[in-house]
């Protein structure tokens, strides 16, 4: 990747954070930090933010567990909308045990400082993008699609900074901190972009893949530092066993749909879901045969005689 992190590792630990800041109150009127975690079957909850405008809409995610992981809380000024989305899913601020930033772009971490203050949860980011989070700066933006050229004007050169507490690396397991998932370094969009793959095949990929004009149409990322690395990283995620890609803009996208837009992708047997519960193809269903009515006693079979008139004669 050719770039080393210039971020200084002299950062505040969780034991040094003060607890004097006030938290917003949940919609039920009770202290949001005291609400118990809700049992959930799904491993990831998608929280759409920013409305339907493709240039401003983003997705935050919650990886459920005994302590939830909040991934990419969203842009500056979006904390109130994120709080409403969490309340809809009965998730209180006290249920969040970790905040993860997939990469150092402001539409993904602009409100992270406010969420960190509200939840008192540590913030984690890969070491190669940590300097952007620390300074609230924006890495070089290189549009590679038409939508990228349009969205470039929405990028701010400065946003609220937040102090990273945890520097992530390839292979780190989030179970050490909260929730579930394993970190995969997937550079290309930025040098420190990461993906989080879960045991059930869901994979949060940030902006490694993005939407086209339609939310459910996959596209190359609008911006990229190195498109060769983007392709390699996307193949890396697929080879790791990802089945569903959860992206920062649009989606979700099934892995088996990718080769139509990304012909270089090579699918693996782990990436394609079986067609049936037994893992085998469904047998071909032939048309059902018509059942002949039962022959009455004393009536001969018309198929065994030369003519219907002769077969109908009574002996």
Quick tags:
315 residues; alpha/beta; Metallo-beta-lactamase, Chain A; six-stranded mixed sheet; five-stranded mixed sheet; 13 strands; 16% strand; globular; disordered C terminus
CATH third-tier fold name: Metallo-beta-lactamase, Chain A
Strand order of the largest sheet: 1-2-3-4-5-6
CATH superfamily: Ribonuclease Z/Hydroxyacylglutathione hydrolase-like
Content-based structural category: alpha/beta
Average of the residue pLDDT scores: 77
Task: State the shape.
Answer: globular
Number of strands: 13
Class, according to the CATH hierarchy?
Answer: Alpha Beta
- The proportion of strand residues reads 15-25%
Roughly how many Å is the radius of gyration?
Answer: 28 Å
Query: Low-confidence runs (pLDDT<50, min 5 residues)?
Result: 8-21, 25-41, 275-286, 302-315
Helix amount: 10-25%
Q: Report the end-to-end length measured between terminal Cα atoms.
A: 97 Å
CATH architecture: 4-Layer Sandwich
Count, helices: 7
Number of domains: 1
Reported for the largest beta sheet, the result is: 6 strands, mixed
The helix/strand series, from N terminus to C terminus, equals: EEEHEHHEHHEEEEEEHEEH
């Amino acid at each position: 990747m050719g770039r080393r992190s210039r971020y200084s590792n002299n950062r505040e630990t969780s034991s040094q954070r003060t607890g004097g800041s006030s938290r917003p109150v949940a919609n039920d009127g009770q202290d949001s930090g005291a609400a118990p975690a809700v049992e959930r079957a799904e491993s990831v909850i998608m929280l759409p933010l920013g409305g339907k405008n493709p240039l401003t809409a983003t997705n935050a995610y919650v990886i459920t567990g005994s302590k939830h992981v909040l991934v990419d809380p969203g842009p500056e000024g979006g904390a109130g909308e994120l709080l409403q989305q969490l309340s809809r899913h009965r998730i209180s601020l006290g249920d969040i045990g970790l905040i993860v930033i997939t990469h150092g772009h402001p539409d993904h971490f602009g409100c992270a400082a406010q969420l960190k203050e509200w939840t008192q949860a540590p913030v984690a980011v890969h070491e190669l993008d940590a300097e952007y989070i620390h300074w609230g700066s924006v890495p070089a933006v290189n549009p590679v699609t038409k939508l990228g050229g349009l969205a470039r004007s929405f990028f701010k050169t400065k946003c609220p900074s937040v102090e990273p507490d945890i520097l992530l690396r390839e292979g780190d397991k989030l179970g050490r901190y909260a929730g579930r998932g394993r970190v995969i370094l997937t550079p290309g969009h930025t040098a420190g972009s990461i993906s989080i793959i879960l045991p059930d095949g869901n994979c949060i990929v940030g902006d490694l893949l993005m939407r086209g004009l339609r939310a459910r149409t996959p596209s190359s990322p609008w911006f990229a530092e190195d498109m060769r690395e983007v392709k390699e990283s996307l193949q890396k995620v697929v080879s790791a066993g990802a089945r569903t890609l959860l992206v920062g803009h649009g989606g979700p996208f099934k892995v088996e749909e990718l080769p139509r837009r990304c012909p270089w992708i090579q699918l693996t047997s782990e990436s394609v879901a079986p067609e049936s519960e037994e893992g085998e193809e469904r047998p071909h269903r032939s048309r059902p045969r018509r059942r002949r009515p039962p022959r009455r006693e004393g009536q001969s079979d018309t198929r065994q005689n030369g003519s219907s008139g002769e077969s109908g004669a009574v002996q």
